[in-house]
Amino acid sequence: MIAQELEMTSEEALQIDFHSDSYRDAYSRINAIVIEGEQEAHNNYISLGELLPDLQTELAGLAKMENRHKKGFEACGRNLNVTPDLTFAEEFFSKLHGNFQVAFAAQDVVTCLLIQSLIIECFAIAAYNIYIPVADDFARKITEGVVKDEYLHLNFGEVWLSQNFEASKAGLEKANKQNLPLVWKMLNQVDRDAKVLGMEKEALVEDFMIQYGESLGKIGFNTREIMKMSAMGLATV
Predict the structure, then answer these.
(1) Fewer beta carbons within 10 Å, N or C terminal of the chain?
(2) pLDDT of 221 strictly over 50
């Protein structure tokens, strides 16, 4: 199913003028967000390696992968002759970044994993899945490769948290309550730009909730708990 989706090319993409001023303006922010998101992920996995020294080598490998993704998305911007608005992107991630740094300073592995390995990865996967059918040919090929890797990153957090579920459960619920509402605010912030690129917010929300809910289930939460956690802050969408 996923493979078929990644191979799809939307008819809408054929109608998009990738070189119009409006498209390139919106793309300058969306492209910056994915570049900054990959940089955040790189840094976060390096930090997690300090908190989980037994897994440092594996986490360093994930960090290198994220850096490679960043370079790929930088190439996507250059292909359209777009300069990414990195100042906008840094502000876009600032609250999640701040919460991760607070958790890291407190050596709170559970919160760090929820932010990076669940929220950020599910956010990225949802965005890439919705973007691929409407992307230009160059960006589509780059993004198809990236999204396959992101499932590996998501799996790392799922495995660790499932193995430590009972000890992590309360911390995950607390971290979810604090951080998930930020995702809805972030989606609202880029609603207009995403639409210019052919990405509907409703589809992004749906894909994110599917990915996030499935991850919570794999970790050990039951259906009722998943529904409660996934709906946190949803009223702001």
Answers:
(1) N
(2) yes
Burial string for 85-122 (b: 16+ CB within 10 Å, else e) reads bbebbeebbeebbebbeebbeeebbbbbbbbbbbbbbb
Take residue 129 and report the two structure tokens written for it: 């899945």
Q: Give the rounded distance of the alpha carbon of 185 from its chain centre.
A: 14
**CA-wise closest residue to 173 among 185, 188, 156, 161:** 161
- The secondary element (H helix, E strand) that includes residue 114 is none
Contact 80, 136 (CB under 8 A): yes
Report which of residues 234 and 76 the model is more confident about.
76
Q: Which of 129, 158, 139 is nearest to 6 (CA)?
A: 129
Closest CA to 31 of 122, 141, 185, 143: 143
- Residue 167 predicted with pLDDT over 90: yes
Mean pLDDT computed over every residue of the chain: 90
Instruction: Specify the pLDDT at position 107.
Output: 98
How many other C-beta atoms are found inside a 10 Å radius of the C-beta of residue 83? 11
- Residue showing tokens 């490769």: 145
User: How many CB atoms are located within 10 Å of the residue 198 CB?
Assistant: 17
Query: Is the confidence at residue 7, as pLDDT, over 50?
Result: no
Contact assessment for residue 16 and residue 198, using Cβ atoms and an 8 Å cutoff: yes
First to last CA, the chain: 28
Tokens 């009223």, residue?
A: 235
